[in-house]
Design goal:
- Helix content is about 55%, strand content about 5%.
- By secondary structure, it is an alpha+beta fold.
- It is globular.
- The protein contains 19 helices and nine strands.
Amino acid sequence: MINDFDGLKYTIASPHQKEWGQRLISELFLILLISTIGVVLGLQGWQSRVHGMDLTPCIDDAVEFWQDGILPEKGMLNSFASYNPPGTNLLFIPCVRLFHDPVLFDYPVCALFYFGANLVIFLLVRPAFGRNCAFLAVILFAFSSFGLQSSASLWSRYQMPFFYTAFVLCLMRWIQNNNGWYACAAVILWSAGMYIFLEIAPIIFLLPFFYWFFKKSLSLLPLLIAAIVSVLIWLPYLRFDSQRHFENIQSQLVRRSVLPDNYKTAWCNPDLIVHDWTDGKLEVSQRIFANESRDDDIPSLFRNGFDHIATMINGLLLNFGFLAPIPFLPSLLLIVLFLSSAVFFLFIFNKFNTFTTIFPFMFPFFQSLKETKKTEISVLVCGFLIPLLFLCALTEAGRIDRYVFLWPMQCILVAITLQYPLHVANIPKIYRQAIRNVLIVFTLSNTILLEHVDSWIHDGFGGRMHPKRQVAAWIADQIEKNHIENPQIGYQVFFMHYIPAFHIRDSRYKVGADIDMLLRFIHGVENHTTCAEGVSPVDHFRIVQKLPVDHHRSTFRIPIESNDSPDSQFSYYQIYECRKK
């Protein structure tokens, strides 16, 4: 409503506009509240955590940026021993100067991505399917074990839900508004997400599919701008890899290891043999690190079709396992997901008449979708199915973790399937609420959330001190007391099998690098033992881990010399103060 007063025009909001504005503010507040609770739960227990080996080079590069002004141009090593793009390294840059504890470096940026993912999920669902469906989808993602972990770690895979859902949202706006600049934004988001983790590459196939399916305009200028911005984002990594004949990009495209056969030549003691903890005892490792025999160098769905389909199914089941650890729940939700996707797919291609003839009670539901929501449901369903099919065709058989980034779209489709048809069919509200509440209870009963709550109750917000932190604190104290210069600290601990092997590619990969990081950032102690195997003959201290406590199952069997005396112990970690001859 516009009024004129003394020649000045001003707008008076109508009651409907005021109500809409109040509703928008309340919904944004709820999204912020959900995200805040998730971030607080993710932060809980930070003292009981240490960074894994993969993030150590990323943090080092972020520190180097502040010290020397050098922009990161390569990321962590992947499973093919080639360098990922340095997107994760860039994410650490804003935070490494805020805290002295490396575990806390993750949280500010994680909180932004976590809130962004929750907000985008809400925006994808709310306009077409209502706030109940939207909030259910947000809760399924935000409080799932994966959602909570993504709120607390900058490990590359945890940022993919934001880039994936934001990419789909931009495509939806492009289709709804016939505005090519939304497609431009989608391509830039995809490029930025790829710069963190190449795993989301298949989502780009949505762009040509939607261009063909919806017949929307897409001028050259937005695509040109998107291409220029994408090249600028990727320029440091492309410049780095061009000096190496693009071996890193080629390795990831054809999925072939670039680890040399003679990786042990980079060790201080090449004669050491890796042992794996198997069935309660140590046995010589049978792993082949370099140039592993794989059947996925040129992946083919037609060659190993059943293996790829089984991997896809297990990957989706793994995602539903982010909810309560109930045996039948993942399988039940997967059946719901496949059935609903098939039904929606028939609707998208106008094949639902035959379906409604067999199931006439579904006619009101399809009619409702046809009248107002065909674009939205088409984008959401195809936004899930098309990347799923490309992943099935291209992903190595057995790599079920490749499907994790699809999790937010699974949450969206399950929420819509179990709520919207009941609303259209005028099912009593009490039954719809009951289904919604059961799903929320299943979500809030996941293992990670319950562990955080239990730890908060029994050990406080910071959680129980991780034994590696105790080890680092004790060693730092001894170094200060004894005035040891250039301390050398050895680690005879359990590790992921690839860590010493990757030392030849990047010297920062070494056994015990996670404890070295605690010593360096928290206590200001630099370890001068740089051997890949983590130990040297002239160590001042030797940390020996007696039993594996997680997925780190490889170690070296190195006898402790008779003139070494055990000095202290924290959990499974024994500390020997070595008396050098």
